Amino acid sequence: VRNDGPLDVTLDQGAVKMTAFRLRGDDSSLAFTGSVDVLSGTLGLHVEGGTDLGVLQAFSRNVRSAGRAAVTVDVGGTFERPLIAGFADLTEGRLRSMLMPHAVERINGRVQFDGRHIRVDDIRARVARGDVRFGGRIGLEGFAPSTVDLTASGEGMEFRYPEGFRSVLDADLALRGPLSQPVLSGTVQVRDATLKRRLDLGSGMLELGTAAAGAAASGSPAGGPAGFPLRFDVRILAPQALEIDNNLARITSSADLRLAGTYDKPLLFGRAEVDRGEVWFEGKRIVVTRGNIDFTNPARIEPSFDVEAETRVRAPGQTYRVTIRVLGTMQRMTLDLSSDPPLPQVDIVTLLLGDAGSTQDPELRALQNPNIAEQSLIQARAARLLASPIASNVGRVVERTFGVDTFQITPMLTDPSQQSGRFLPGARLMILKRISDRVYLTYSRSLTSSIGDQVILLEYDQNDRLSWVVTQNEDRTYAIDVRVRHIF
Q1: Which of 125, 259, 291, 375 gives 20 to 30 Å between its CA and that of 30?
Q2: Segment 214-231, tens digit of pLDDT
Q3: Per residue in 316-373, pLDDT tens?
Q4: Contact (Cβ atoms closer than 8 angstroms) between residue 152 and residue 169
Q5: CA distances from 301 to 263, 269, 319 (A)
Q6: How far apart are CA 110 and CA 469, in angstroms?
Q7: For 388-419, b where at least 16 C-beta lie within 10 A, e where not — what string?
Q8: How far is C-alpha 445 from the geometric centre of its chain's CA atoms?
Q9: How far apart are the C-alpha atoms of 379 and 359, rounded to whole Å?
C-alpha cells in the first residue's frame, strides 16, 4: 500500500484530523477523511473507495478470495465500542475455503452496515453451478463478528464430492447462533446423487468389509479434529434419487435422514431404502429384492443393514437359486445363505466363489464326504488370494477395450479326483453385457476343462415383478425359467 498524492494530517487538541489521506494498492484505492480524538477515544471517520476482496486472505490462511468491493462507510463511536454505518457493493466476488469442496463464485449485491450488524439482504452467487441467494445479518462486537443469523437458498447445485460421486441438490439452510457455537439447520432436497467411480475389490468382498469396518470404527474425519465449532441439524430428503452405477453395482434407493452432531463428529439418523438394485460379484448378477439401511447409533455414523438379494448359480447338472440376507453393522455382520434346491451354507459359498469341484451333484458330494465342501471353499479362496490382482487388471483392460460391463477370469485350484489332495490350477471366464436396462447376457466357460461346459444366460426383466431367463446348459440343452416376485 502506498500513498496516492500528499497526505495532509494535523494534530489539534488531541484530535488527529485527516483532510487528505488517500491510499492505493493493487486494485485498491481508499480515501479517509474525518478525525480521531485520542484523548476522549472517539471516532469520526469517513472511508470511501474500492478494494480487491483478496484482502480477506490476510485474515485467514484457509481462505482464498477475489473480486471487487466499492465501499462507503462511516466509523463512529469509541475505541472500545466502534460503530460502523454504510455499505459495500460486491461485484463478481469469489470466496473459497480450503475446508470446503466448492467455492462461492460470482458474488454480487450490497452488504449494509447499520452500527451493530452487517446486513446481507439480497446477495446472489453461484455454488457448484447452482444459483444461491443469501440473506440475514451478522452481529458485531466492535470490528469482530459475534453472532450469525444467515440464510441460504440454492437450486441445482452440482457437487462432485467425494471423488467419483456426483449429486444435484436444492437446499434451504440457516446458520444461527453465537459465533462460538453456530448451528446449521434446514432441509436439503437431493434431486440426483450417483456414484460412478470404479471399485476394485482386490481379493474379494471380505477385504471390502474389513476396510469399511475400520473406517466406521474411526468415527472422526481424516486428519483429526478441525476445531470448527459448527453443529448440524439438517434434514436430507432423497426420494428415489440415490444411485450407485459402476462396475460392481447398479442400485437405486430413497432416504430420509437427519444430519446432527458437530463438524468434527457428525452423526446421521434415519433410514435409506433400496427401491431396486443389482450387484455383480464373481461374474454373477445378484438382484437386490429388498433392503433397509438404518442409522440409529447416537455415538457415531454406523449403518445397520437389513438387505436381501438373490441370484442364479449354475452347477453341472443343476441351476440353484441362492438367497443372500445381510443383517447387522459392518463390525457385527450376519450373513445368511439359502438355496433352492437346498444346500449347506458352505456349499453355497463355494458356488458363489466359483464352480463345483466336479460334475457330481453337490448335494450327493456333501453327503458322501462333508469335508469336500470345506476343501472346495479353501481352494477357491486360496486361488483368489494368489491371482485376483492380475485377473482384476486384465478384466479392467478388456472392459474398456471391448465395451463389456464385466470381464472376469476366476482362478481356481481343483483336485480332479477329489481325493488325491493334489491341486491343479484352473480358471473360468465370465463375461456380462448389459444390453439394455432390462436385458442382460452372461457367458461362462471353463478355460481348463476338456469338457465343453459353457453356459449362456439371457435374462429379461419385463417389469419389477416378472422376469424371463433363457439358459443354454453345459450339455447344449436349453431351459426357460419364469421368475415372479411377490412382496407380502
Answers
A1: 125
A2: 444 444 444 444 556 889
A3: 667 788 998 989 887 788 888 898 888 887 777 777 765 444 434 444 444 444 555 5
A4: no
A5: 13, 8, 40
A6: 64
A7: beebeeebeebbeeeebbbbbbbbbbbbeebe
A8: 37
A9: 17
Which amino acid is it at 424?
A: L
Grid cell in block for residue 121: 439482504
Count, residues in the chain = 488
Q: What are the cell numbers at 488?
A: 407380502
Cell numbers placing 41: 477515544
Nearby residues of 74 by Cβ (< 8 Å), 6 or more positions away: 45, 46, 47, 84, 85, 86
